[in-house]
Amino acid sequence: MIESKKKSLILNLILGAIIILIAILFWPNDEKNTQSNKIDRTKTQIKVTTKRINIRKEANINSEDIGDVYKDEIYTVLGHIEDSNYYWYKIKTNQGKEGFIASNISDPYVKLLSGYIDRKAPNIKSNKEFLIFINDNTNYDDISCIDEHSSCTMSYEKEPEYITFYGVDEDNNKSSLKIKYYNVYNLYKEYYENNNKINTKISKTKNNNTYTINAFYTINNMISIKDKSNSYTPIINFYDSDMTELGDIYVIYNKELLPTCINNENFNLKEEYLEKDLLKGSTLCMNYTFNNSDNRIKYVSFGFTSVDNYNNINNLLASNYSKTFILEN
C-alpha cells in the first residue's frame, strides 16, 4: 500500500513537471504579442525572418541578454554596427526595451523592408601622390572625404614622412588614406635659422642657369658625444617636380676650399666625411655650384649628417641636419 502511494506521488511529480514545461514553451508571450508591426516607409525598418533573436544591451554576443524579438516582427532601425560576423541593428520594442539584435552576414536573420542602411565606407581622395608643406605650413586642400549617403568627418595623424587621414560617416563607417609628405622651404637670396643646436646661414646666387649655394652651420651646443668616434658627412640631392631624385649629374665641381669648411668636392658621399669631435663654435661650411639648364631641378636638399660612435655599429646615433629648399620662388 505504501509502495503504491510512493509510485503515485512520483507520477504526479513527473506529470506536474511536464505541465509546467509545456506552459513555459507554449504560454502566450506578452512581449511578442504587444509588438506593433506597422510598416512606415519613411523610416528604415527591418523584419525578423528567424524564430527568435536575443536583444543584447551592447553590440556583441557576450553582452547582457535583455529580451527577445520574434519572427515576422517589424522594427525601426535606430542605428547599426558591423563586425566580422554580424550586422548589429539597434532597435526599441513597444515595451521600451532598447538594445541590439544580430543578423549573420552570410546567413541573415532579418531583411530590410524600407529605407537604406549605409555600409559603404567613405572615400578619402587625394588630388596628388604626395603633399608639399611649405615653410612648415600644412595645407590639406588636396585631400577630400566623400560619402554617398551622409556627411564625412575627417581627422589625421602625422608621423615623420607620412600622414594618415581618417574618415568616418554618420553611420560610423570608416576608412583611411596614408600619404607621403615633404617639408620644403623657400630659399631666396639668403636663409637663416637658429635653434639650440645649430645656427644656419645659407646664401644663393644665380648666373643664367648656374647656381652657387654657400651653407654655414655654426654649432651652439655639442651635437656629438664627447670622447666618442664622430663622423660628419655632407649631403646634397636634387629633385624634380615629382620629388624624383636626379642624382649629382648637375654639379659643377668647385675646387676652391673655403676656410674652415668641409667641401663636398667629389660628392662621393659614401667615402667623404670628417672624423672630428666638433665643439661649440665650430662651423661647417659647404659650397655647391650646379647647373639647371634643362630646368628639371625644382628642389634641392642639402646639409649634413652626424653619426656618433660610428666605430660601434651596435650603438650608432645618427642625426640629420638637412633641409629641402625650393630652387625658384
List keywords for this structure.
SH3 type barrels; 329 residues; 4-stranded antiparallel sheet; 45% strand; mainly beta; 3 domains; Immunoglobulin-like; 8-stranded mixed sheet
Query: Which radius of gyration do the C-alpha atoms yield?
Result: 36 Å
Oligomer state of the chains in this structure: single chain
| Count of spatially separate domains | 3
User: Could you give the order of the helices and strands?
Assistant: HHEEEEEEEEEEEEEEEEEEEEEE
Shape: elongated
In the predicted model, the low-confidence regions spanning at least 5 consecutive residues are: 253-260, 262-271
Beta-strand content bin: 35-45%
Structural class: mainly beta
Q: Summarize the amount of helix as a percent range.
A: under 10%
Let me know the largest β-sheet: 8 strands, mixed
Overall residue-averaged pLDDT value: 78
**Tally of strands:** 22
CATH topology of the largest domain: Immunoglobulin-like
CATH structural architecture of the largest domain: Sandwich
Task: Determine the number of helices (DSSP H or I, runs of at least 4 residues).
Answer: 2
